[in-house]
Amino acid sequence: MRIGLSGIMVDNQDKALAFYTNVLGFTVKNDIPMGQFRWLTVTSPEGADGVELVLEPIGFPPAHAYQTALYAAGIPATAFLTSDIHKEYQRLKDLGVVFRGEPNNMGPIIGVMFEDTCGNLINLVQPL
């Protein structure tokens, strides 16, 4: 058994696609119309083969409430790994990404949170 798909809820699939591809540098794997929404997945050029991030539309009110509660509490929806957090932090900051602080040593990792423009906080992490 292996993990092939992981999802993140987004408030707007078009906005999410632009952010996750144009800003984060992910590539589109699937973009398939499915009624009013799409089966929309992206992959990381630096990630493991076969692992896709599903940009899931919030069409279910409890899902929206959950996303809003996580964001309000400052809890990240997921985490992305990097081998050079300071370089990635500066690259993303130069592209206008809003961070919640600066990279901080947290024991076995260095981490910092950023906003994905789609209603989520994402933890950017460099394992030590």
UniProtKB/TrEMBL annotation:
Which domain of life does this protein belong to? Bacteria
Q: Record's InterPro entries? A: Glyas_Bleomycin-R_OHBP_Dase, Glyas_Fos-R_dOase_dom, VOC_core
**Where is the VOC domain positioned along the sequence?**
2-127
The name on file for this protein is VOC family protein
Q: Which organism is it from?
A: Pseudoduganella ginsengisoli
Phylogenetic classification of the source organism: Bacteria, Pseudomonadati, Pseudomonadota, Betaproteobacteria, Burkholderiales
